[in-house]
Design a protein that fits this description.
alpha/beta; Rossmann fold; 4-stranded antiparallel β-sheet; about 25% strand
Length: about 280
Amino acid sequence: MKHVLKIENLHVSVNGKPILRGVNLEMQHGSTHALMGPNGSGKSTLGLVIAGHPGYEVTEGLISLDGVDLSDMEADGRARAGIFMAFQRPVSVPGVKMADFLRHATTNVRRPDRKEGEELIPMREFRKELKEKMEQLRMDPEFARRYVNEGFSGGEMKRAEILQLAMLQPKFAILDETDSGLDADAVRLASASIAEIGREKMGLLIITHHDKLLEHNPPDFTHVMLGGRIVETGGVELAQELYSKGYERIRNAYPDADRVNQEMLSDESAEVAVG
């Protein structure tokens, strides 16, 4: 079965303020999509809404996975259904080792009907698979014994999320600025690691400002967001243009969306100033 993630006419608000204004996007399993745009355009919001973040209100439109409406499904249910999101700033979980966390998460994804307290993946089977994935990603085995993200550097947090991605093998993965806070060498390593775990085995939505993250993962489609909607779609050449020349052409081509984007940025700045 060819899995399909579809976003149709998606409108989203936060505290009554519109953020997304009619987003349409369809992703096929095995394809790579780059999502780009200037600050405040709604890129991260789209990723969070797909993943089921409770802080956003969907006021219109539909998100579906293989024809199933995800609207009433919480984040945990969407993860079990095959949606994965790597966050810009993942939280730490003191007292929980990476291996234990991954065993529970992997079991829940592979057995979506499992109830809390029911049997996990057999330990021997899990350890064998975890060892293979860590060797593939050239990770120190001691990493699995550390508490989740506690005391991790920025690069280690990203590596931890890529390990999760390798173990969970979701239908669709959203990588929200996985390059954030990393130097160029670390970004190249992250890019190569994503490619190594088999991007053809899942659909990838890569939200990025960094061309190096796409070095080993050239997008089949590049989407440009401005003012809360996707205004232009192209191939890898569009991503290359935006890296080299910026967004001036996009802003000039879509003045109404650019005006909305500036208003959204002004609202964000005002809230920060008040806060």
